[in-house]
Amino acid sequence: MTSASAQAAAPSRFVRPTSITGTMVIGIATILVFLIATVTVDGFASSTNLRGLCLSVSLIGIIAVGLSLITIVGKIFTLSIPATIALSTILFAHTLHLGAGVALLLSILLATAIGVLQGFIVGKFEADPIVTTIAAAAILVGVGQLWTNGRTIAGHGDTTLFNSNLLGFIPFQTAVFVVLAALAFWWHRFTISGRRLTLIGLNEKAARISGLRSWPLVVLAFTISGAATGLAAGLLSAQSEQGSLSLGSSFGFDAIVAVVVGGVGIKGGIGTPLGAAVGAIFVGLLVNVLALIGLSYEYQLVLKGLLVLAAVAVMGVATNPERSR
Q: pTM value?
């Protein structure tokens, strides 16, 4: 076998730690919390609450699925998600008069371009992803301020489709989330490029020695994450037909929580987009239940922080078992 063919075949042979067990545990925990809440929490099983839960979980889940690819490839997170969402909602509202579909497409294209640029800087020039995305966030917020002068932009158009229920009970956003999570999981698990993404996250230096160029896949991960963020931003803006710098301000942290709780290792190479999707459902469900029983927003933040710390600690022990001895 030639070296070129060996390189092409290599990604399909290695066994990667996909954290399927962790995803199953979170999935089972999600089902248990849902069943217990249905029986014990007043108002949880109401149609209004369940629809609101689906909407909030879906938007965070869409972002988390895309973000998980950046983490899997070994570039930790992007901290420009809130700024990207804000700018994308402003664009959506500005262009809504052209049609909701056009406005959504433009929002996705804007966020995708932002992702490509950041991915190129991080991947090609090996810049620190945290510093790069913080700088990008500052630029985006500045652009948004100059564009809107800090005001909320009201859109004018028909967003009925994006706020409708498919089959009479499934929110449009939820259907998008499920389809995106399934496609991302399939691509990551069953395609060569998806497997290479994990291989680079596991050991970028070894991947380079084997002949794999890491930076194109880093750019791809940031591109997909940007597109997913733009999609969520457009759907968020469609709910109120408005765009502003404050919309989605907490989505970045919530997506990070979902990714970590879903079993994606922050050092790269571990986890799947499906795990991030399940993590988003679990965290959203838990926060919803705690809000219904009267827990304040401040305590909810504490809970999210504790969940991240616990997930990081468990992942650290799982990937470095000698430390637990």
A: 0.90
